[in-house]
Design a protein that fits this description.
Elements lengths: L29 E9 L22 H24 L5 E4 L3 H4 L1 H9 L3 E4 L13 H19 L5 E2 L10 H7 L4 E2 L9 E3 L6 E3 L8 H7 L4 H18 L5 E8 H4 L2 H17 L2 E3 L2 H12 L4
Parallel strand pairs: 1-2, 1-8, 1-9, 2-3, 4-5, 5-7
Antiparallel strand pairs: 6-7
Helix pairs in contact: 1-9, 7-9
């Protein structure tokens, strides 16, 4: 990001109409990817002067234990539902999970899921970091995920969505080629960086289960209906040029017994529709790059 400018200069303005046509494999109109956030929250993390880790005084036992449901129970429920309907995960990973709960990471790897970095802990914020500290997080992410899964990460979602002005330049410099941190489009788009190349793949705050249940106070049925309406519109518009739908998930939310059934009906709907290319994030970026030419 460029400091001191009204326009941060991260990307060119490109109106939605009259863009070059993107066609997904098999003539599909919308690329659908599921992004489980496999996270680790510390019960009493170091304080960041710009933001509290928990809304309650530390240690927040309730907040910690609620999120720990993901790794103990609801990851498995969510993952099995995804596998049943043919949806691989592209994992937004708190890299420390590789040490704290390696069984969860191993399960995702065995399912053929892709991993990208969501920082080390979701309770450690990037605000105020100097360049050396930020480089250390990126290097740790690359090395730790490679050791745990055999994969070299290609993507980045900033921990708790926190950044510095140099974040995107740094991840591109280290060879990562997509970011989930821009919510500005429904198609893959190029991002301007100092070195290398970077693409923005559509992630979502609007249909993120965290926003659905914590911010918009949706019922499971309402959230499922929202996902289906999102899919239907993007599949329709994608006939002109391929669109992207991301379903960002947190297992401790979507994997609760009273919510998983409604979510499974969404997976059934999308899988049966015929217009969806169900893919991993890196595959979507690769397919876009193969068609976007110099813009990629």
């Amino acid at each position: 990001m460029r400091e001191g400018a009204a326009d941060p200069g991260l990307y060119d303005f490109a109106p939605y109409r009259d863009r070059p046509k993107i066609v997904w494999p098999g003539g599909k109109t919308v690329a659908v990817w599921v992004a489980p956030n496999l996270e680790y929250y510390e019960i009493d993390p170091p304080a960041n002067p710009q933001r509290k880790s928990w809304t309650k005084p530390h240690p927040d036992i309730v907040g910690y234990a609620h999120r720990d449901h993901s790794n103990r129970v609801s990851h498995w429920r969510m993952a099995e539902a995804m596998s049943r309907h043919g949806f691989p995960g592209s994992v937004s990973l708190s890299v420390a999970l590789c040490q704290h709960h390696p069984d969860v990471v191993e399960d995702g790897a065995k399912r053929g899921w892709e991993f990208f970095s969501h920082g080390i802990y979701n309770t450690r914020y990037t605000y105020g970091m100097d360049e050396a500290q930020e480089r250390a997080i990126i290097e740790d992410s690359i090395a730790t995920v490679q050791a745990a899964t055999g994969q070299r990460i290609r993507g980045w979602l900033a921990p708790a969505l926190t950044h510095t002005p140099r974040t995107l330049d740094l991840i591109a410099e280290y060879g990562l080629d997509y970011t989930c941190d821009l919510y500005h489009d429904d198609q893959v788009q190029p991002v301007k960086v100092a070195k290398g190349r970077l693409a923005s793949i559509p992630y979502s705050l609007e249909v993120n289960d965290h926003y659905g249940f914590f911010v918009y106070n949706m019922s499971p049925r309402d959230y499922a209906d929202t996902l289906i309406r999102q899919f239907e519109r993007l599949a329709q518009e994608g006939a002109a040029s391929g669109t992207v739908m991301c379903i960002p998930l947190h297992a401790y939310l979507i994997g609760q017994p009273h919510r998983i059934g409604a979510f499974e009906r969404v997976l059934e709907h999308i899988a049966a529709d015929g217009r969806a290319w169900i893919a991993r994030a890196g595959e979507i970026v690769d397919a876009w790059r193969a068609q976007a030419g110099a813009a990629a």
